[in-house]
């Protein structure tokens, strides 16, 4: 049994016409993060350390919707959330509503390790961050010019939808968003398994552009966006409300446990049968060292590698 | 189609020394709520309306730990959470960190129906004001009972005996000489632990399942702590097959994705409702203590728990009715 790792930078309607200036830096980050993860696994770091390390890097990259580069709420603020889970012990930690913590994923790990709770949110989570002395920065650090523009466009599109109840302008408004492309996506996640079959998963996000203040998505919810046990580790991305309802991450594990499906069969079933088309993507690894990356959206930023030398990176379906 | 069925709970993990008078009050309240649900079902209200109605009633009574009577945070304030799910279409809504909305379960329903999201928390939840109105606001004081102020004091004392950041269930053996009551839930002596999260599950005459759960959370919790109650798949879940509401040690319920698990073993393993409940309580809780109630689309009702006592009641269309606390 070898190690395996997979990571994602969000699933959604990624237009195939995505301009190179948006595509290239993301591909470079995916490759760099994959290399970091592979190196960590090769030097026998635990999968829990590896997924945290990789997601921290992704959070630090402003091109993805997590940490710096998180999309903005309807108030123009950033509210980040993250979740981490260790497969063997099923210990887990989650955070929501962070506004100043540089690496939400590391705070979720501290919630797991240093508190009697699993999930801390908003002011309580920020206070805990201060108490633990994790790196914090002014709110403006997380806000990029690109995301200010995205929020503006989303608000304009919404206004059009509110003003005209007739279907035609609505459709036009939707097209505007699609033409803009990748505004709703970019949640990041990583799953890893080591040579001893230890599994871990981590997911981090800024949520949805123009989301209501206080909105919680699937990412921090154990069993929805993030789940690991002794069989597999899963990190999901896409339309949060749909993923939550379908308990996407836990269902992959449940199908393996209760129906005896393989990792690939279980993920295919969840992506094809459980989550509505256009709503979800996921990366997953099994204790046996298998890896899979599946989605029912136009695309998913993704990369993976296994010990036997297999490696893949992509955005749209591979032919 | 097996007719309607309903179950309610007022929390799992009951102090065996709970005064008889309090036990009686709990049974009276459970019976009253059950009867409210039964008459709503008889007048053909859909399952989703019935679970909301019943949980609202439980929230407005100070006896259990939800709405008025909620457990207090370490700051002495109330932060409530709730969720609701309609199995028909798997729609859901959840709220956390609610401090002034009188009925958190109804706010969860508004999130489900009037917002583009499924889950709103803290100020965002508080500020959800649908143009149609219908959100009754009260002062945070309304939720705080004298009894809970005393309980918080006890919890703080118990915590200082222990340690600030405990890993649940570890370390108690060593401390048992100091702790008078070795029974504990969620890391607190059971006499202090406020277990009494409330929930309701219903299948209506048309086979539609729904579930709702509401809580004040853990006594002396850190501000911002989110438990299992608002988490879809953990504390609450409903689908075409069944409706489930859980209560007990929140962290164990989250790790075990307990509510979804009942549905998952029915869907993927083909178990019946009671088998599914028994399996989940036995296999999915690890060391944790919890209980749950469930109904199936066939009109069956079931409950299970692995701790001492669960406040619960259930009834079915064919005339079966039961209210109990102990095994």
UniProtKB/TrEMBL annotation, chain A:
The lineage of its organism: Eukaryota, Viridiplantae, Streptophyta, Embryophyta, Tracheophyta. Substrate binds at residues 215-218, 237-240. Its EC number is 3.4.19.5. The active site is at 187 (nucleophile). Keywords: Autocatalytic cleavage, Hydrolase, Protease. GO terms for molecular function: asparaginase activity; beta-aspartyl-peptidase activity. The keyword Ribosomal protein does not apply. InterPro entries: Ntn_hydrolases_N, Peptidase_T2. The record marks 186-187 as: Cleavage. It catalyses: Cleavage of a beta-linked Asp residue from the N-terminus of a polypeptide. This is beta-aspartyl-peptidase. GO terms for biological process: proteolysis. Heterotetramer of two alpha and two beta chains arranged as a dimer of alpha/beta heterodimers.
TrEMBL record, chain B:
It holds the Pfam family Asparaginase_2. InterPro entries: Ntn_hydrolases_N, Peptidase_T2. This is beta-aspartyl-peptidase. Keywords: Autocatalytic cleavage, Hydrolase, Protease. It catalyses: Cleavage of a beta-linked Asp residue from the N-terminus of a polypeptide. It comes from Camellia sinensis (Tea plant). Substrate binds at residues 225-228, 247-250. One of its GO terms (molecular function) is asparaginase activity. Heterotetramer of two alpha and two beta chains arranged as a dimer of alpha/beta heterodimers. The lineage of its organism: Eukaryota, Viridiplantae, Streptophyta, Embryophyta, Tracheophyta. The active site is at residue 197.
């Amino acid at each position: 049994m070898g190690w395996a790792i997979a990571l994602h930078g969000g699933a959604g309607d990624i237009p195939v016409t995505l301009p190179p200036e948006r595509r290239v830096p993301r591909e470079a980050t995916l490759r760099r993060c994959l290399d970091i993860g592979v190196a960590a696994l090769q030097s026998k770091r635990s999968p829990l350390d590896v997924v945290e390390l990789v997601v921290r890097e992704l959070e630090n990259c402003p091109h993805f919707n997590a940490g710096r580069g998180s999309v903005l709420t309807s108030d123009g603020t950033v509210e980040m959330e993250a979740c981490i889970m260790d497969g063997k012990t099923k210990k887990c930690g989650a955070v929501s509503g962070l506004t100043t913590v540089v690496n939400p994923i590391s705070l979720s790990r501290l919630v797991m390790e240093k508190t009697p709770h699993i999930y801390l949110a908003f002011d309580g989570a920020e206070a805990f961050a201060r108490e633990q002395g994790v790196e914090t920065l002014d709110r403006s650090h997380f806000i990029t010019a690109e995301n200010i523009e995205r929020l503006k466009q989303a608000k304009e599109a919404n206004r059009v939808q509110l003003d005209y109840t007739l279907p035609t302008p609505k459709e036009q408004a939707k097209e505007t968003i699609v033409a803009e492309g990748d505004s709703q996506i970019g949640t990041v996640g990583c799953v890893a398994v080591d040579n001893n079959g230890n599994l871990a998963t981590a997911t981090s996000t800024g949520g949805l552009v123009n989301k209501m203040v206080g909105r919680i998505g699937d990412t921090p919810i154990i069993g929805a966006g993030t789940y690991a046990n002794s069989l597999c580790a899963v990190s999901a991305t896409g339309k949060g409300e749909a993923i939550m309802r379908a308990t996407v991450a836990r269902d992959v594990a449940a199908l393996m446990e209760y129906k005896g499906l393989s990792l690939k069969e279980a993920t295919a079933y969840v992506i094809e049968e459980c989550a509505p088309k256009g709503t979800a993507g996921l990366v997953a690894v099994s204790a046996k060292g298998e890896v899979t990356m599946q989605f029912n959206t136009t695309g998913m930023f993704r990369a993976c590698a296994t010990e036997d030398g297999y490696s893949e990176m992509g955005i749209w379906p591979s032919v | 189609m097996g007719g309607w069925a309903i179950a309610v709970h007022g929390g799992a993990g009951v102090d065996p020394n709970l005064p008889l008078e309090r036990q009686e009050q709990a049974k009276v309240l459970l019976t009253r709520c059950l009867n409210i649900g039964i008459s709503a079902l008889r007048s053909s209200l859909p399952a989703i309306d019935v679970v909301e109605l019943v949980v609202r009633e439980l929230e407005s009574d100070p006896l259990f730990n939800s709405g008025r009577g909620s457990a207090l945070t370490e700051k002495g304030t109330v932060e409530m959470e709730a969720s609701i799910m309609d199995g028909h279409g798997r729609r859901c809504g959840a709220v956390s960190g609610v401090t002034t909305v009188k009925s958190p379960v109804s706010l969860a329903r508004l999130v489900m129906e009037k917002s583009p999201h499924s889950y709103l928390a803290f100020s965002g939840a508080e500020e959800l004001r649908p143009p149609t109105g219908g959100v009754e606001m009260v002062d945070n004081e309304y939720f705080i009972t004298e009894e809970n102020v005393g309980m918080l004091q006890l919890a703080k004392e118990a915590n200082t005996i222990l340690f600030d950041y405990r890993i649940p269930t570890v370390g108690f053996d060593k401390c048992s000489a100091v702790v008078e009551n070795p029974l504990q839930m969620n890391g607190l002596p059971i006499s202090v632990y406020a277990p009494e999260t409330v929930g309701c599950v219903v299948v209506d005459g048309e086979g539609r399942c729904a579930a709702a759960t509401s809580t004040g959370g853990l006594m002396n919790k850190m501000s911002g702590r989110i438990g299992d109650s608002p988490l879809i798949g953990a504390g609450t879940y409903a689908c075409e097959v069944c409706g489930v509401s859980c209560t007990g040690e929140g962290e164990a319920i989250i790790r075990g994705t307990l509510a979804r698990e009942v549905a998952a073993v029915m869907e993927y393993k083909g178990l019946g409702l009671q088998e599914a409940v028994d399996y989940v309580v036995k296999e999915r809780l690890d060391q944790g203590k919890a209980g749950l109630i469930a109904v199936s689309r066939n009109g069956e009702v079931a409950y299970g728990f692995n701790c001492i006592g669960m406040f619960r009641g259930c009834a079915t269309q064919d005339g079966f009715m039961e209210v109990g606390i102990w095994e």
